[in-house]
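Query form — protein ABC transmembrane type-1 domain-containing protein

QUESTION: What is the three-dimensional structure of this chain?
INPUT:
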Amino acid sequence: MNQHPRVHQRWSYWKGWPLLGKSVGALMLLLIYFPLFWLALMSISERPLSGIPFPLSLEHYAALWQDTRWIGPFGASLAMALLIGVLCAVCATYVGRALPLTRRPGRLMLLLVLPLFIPGMSMGAALFILTRTVLGLKLGFWSIAVGHFIWAFPFALLIIMVLTTRFDHRLIEAGADLGASKWQIFRDIELPLLRPGIVGATLFGFLLSFNEMLRTLFLRGTTETMPVWNWIMASSQQSQVPIIFALTTLVLLVTLPLFLGLFWILFVRLERQ
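ANSWER: The structure tokens for ABC transmembrane type-1 domain-containing protein are given below.
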């Protein structure tokens, strides 16, 4: 009868756990970064569809600069992502500050984050029926923005709520007692404490919008975003696939260092000051 706790204790202190944890971590790093490295390598391969990287060539990058059809969808995706990022940060901050002060924050929170669990095809079809069939509106940039915002807002709200639920409201009362206005209290007390959440909400909104395709297919009308353009090119003309490799590699090489630098400035450098 007393052997079970000893067996459990032996498993808990098994010397192989740290090595197993490191191995799983190394495997996860390999799964995450090796496909990206292989994509970049195939983008400079003369025959990328063969899966063999050699011989190397920059002809696909030259073809990318000669074919300007991707610039319009890329610009639309970039503008959309910037808009959704800003909207998510502003709206999530307002709602996230107010939600903990309501009588039943749990129920409201559940309703606000429910779109996370609704399949993208279902939400896209529902918005299409409402806007096009019921309201008779013309689909385009604005309808895509609505779909993207509904998708990204719950993520932004969850990030903000991590900070606002731990916020010490006695700081606000102290600021009011010292004669500070509501704007001064927000600017000097709340905003510095919420800054990591606001930045995170902006980045999540940007990235989720930039990569979104399921809802966009229902709501785009004649507007093309970058994921939709990539999908159309990849499915219709196999000869365009090497150019897509080059384009996605360029997007990766530009966005990844930018976001890493932004995270370093906001969460490492400023923490040291």
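ADDITIONAL NOTE: The chain has a mean pLDDT of 83.
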